[in-house]
């Protein structure tokens, strides 16, 4: 969509222009006016008038009359666009459908649950949790038998922990998390939001009491038995720089390296930090940038490095040498940023949750609500009968095809809309990858999984089809956007393009109405002289001669033996060139300017002043086209009023007026 079209539609939407739905039942809602045979009712006009004028909607006669005139003109143009069938053009329909999908997305969410997830994530982020766990690995796509076996193993370990067994020893003996197994399952402090797939793990640890082993938790990795040790206020982020002294190849070398680290620390305390970095740091990339590391939260770097960085109490503080597996670091704190406020983080958290699998919680809540409101019904016997006819060796392959007779046996129903075997088979044809991925699994399991996906997809599709009926604001926004597009397309064809392409009509309109509207202010015809020489005597002669003679004579006199003097002529309106302010008079001449690089000298002379005069069409084309567009639009509206007579119910209109 062009930027101009977007602007026109945006202005239309900001005016709150919408249209009532034909065929709706109206109670105590009289017609305010008609455009041809199309009625516009009071409720529509009042809603639009109020939305457009906001605090200025005082319902005075003057205000209402002004807006009624504006709105009737709008309706005339929209009616013309519909009669031109612009709303049937494929590109128009495609754009409108795209907008509908985008707008519907904001309605097809459980906002209450989503808001709760955002708030919950933020509350989690305000604390760090110290935790240990025992992991029993289980792929999220594992067969039910494997999933059940993994859960039983994890649950058995949970029972042992609850009965008093040493948790750390259980982890060392049974955990399949190699990174924490030898540490007795100890992970350390972690903070929200955890990576995708760990929502229930996150929820469990933040809800647990220190020292308590609550229950088995599922993640994308498998099943976890967890133990929370403690909570602390979230550390947020710290921004640091460092001086690095790398470890040597042996202990003897490391003794010297440690001594060098101590020297670097003392130097950092007494001299400029950047100079100390350049002198001592063995981080070749960072040293040239003052040892800059950046901002980070917990669990980004080795624990000793992070503990030392977060322990620095103020900006500019420098740590003593801190050992990591890489070497010794002298750390300087640059800044500390606590967890931002909820309002600061709300949008970012909303986007993260949309991308996170925890959003499935909101999706399931939405689907359940849709099913309740739509009196969702299923026919499991019909599904079972259909499934019994499927052959495993065919169903899980590309050879499976929908029944060409399109069976109408119902499998489920949303509202008055039945969904049949034919609908399900069409879904299965679209989901061939998921269907064939079930090869090796029992066919009943594949069918049930695909059926559930279909039920969920149908729920969302059904809800989308009901948005116009359930949400008046959705209906209004859709109508506003559609009419904005219609207005743009019709005006483009009838006014804007014509004003730009009808050169004969534009010239005639300019001659008849605009010839003396756009005037030049006083103008100066100016000569810009450039002398290709550093000779001061010659420059003086040129200036003296140019001051008394016309440009042609000046060039003729000094260019006899070649082009020594160059002249450029320009015309300026008064006030358009600051260099002319002090010499704005016939014969006015500037001081010379020398350019050592090009070995030239230049000066300016005002040749003559032109009195104010009318501009030609070529000079005022932009303004003239705009005026011509206004003229064409007014003429177009007059024609539309003849084609679609506007009849206002004066009695209804006057009833809207509020007396002050």
Describe the SSE topology.
Elements: H1 3-14, E1 31-35, E2 38-41, H2 42-53, H3 61-83, H4 90-105, H5 111-125, E3 127-137, H6 144-162, H7 167-174, H8 178-181, E4 186-191, H9 199-207, E5 216-218, E6 222-233, E7 237-246, H10 251-270, H11 273-280, H12 284-287, E8 292-296, H13 303-311, E9 322-323, E10 327-337, H14 342-355, H15 359-373, E11 377-378, H16 380-388, H17 392-395, E12 410-414, E13 417-420, H18 421-430, H19 432-437, H20 443-465, H21 467-470, H22 472-501, H23 503-514, E14 519-520, E15 523-531, H24 536-548, H25 551-558, E16 565-573, E17 593-595, E18 600-610, E19 613-614, H26 621-643, E20 646-648, H27 650-656
Antiparallel strand pairs: 1-2, 1-20, 3-4, 3-6, 5-6, 7-8, 7-10, 9-10, 11-12, 12-13, 14-19, 15-16, 15-18, 17-18
Helix pairs in contact: 1-22, 3-22, 4-22, 5-14, 5-15, 10-11, 22-26
Can you tell me about this structure?
With 660 residues, the protein is α+β, with helices and mostly antiparallel strands. Among the domains are: 127-233, Chitinase A, domain 3, CATH 3.10.50.40; 237-337, Chitinase A, domain 3; 374-467, no CATH class; 519-614, no CATH class. It is 51% helix and 18% strand. The protein has 27 helices and 20 strands. A 4-stranded antiparallel β-sheet has the order 4-3-6-5, sandwiched between helices. It has a 4-stranded antiparallel β-sheet with strand order 8-7-10-9, sandwiched between helices. A hairpin with a 3-residue loop joins strand 9 (322-323) and strand 10 (327-337). Helix 5 (111-125) packs across helix 14. It is flat, with a radius of gyration of 40 Å. The chain starts with a helix and ends with a helix. The model is unreliable at 6-26 (pLDDT under 50).
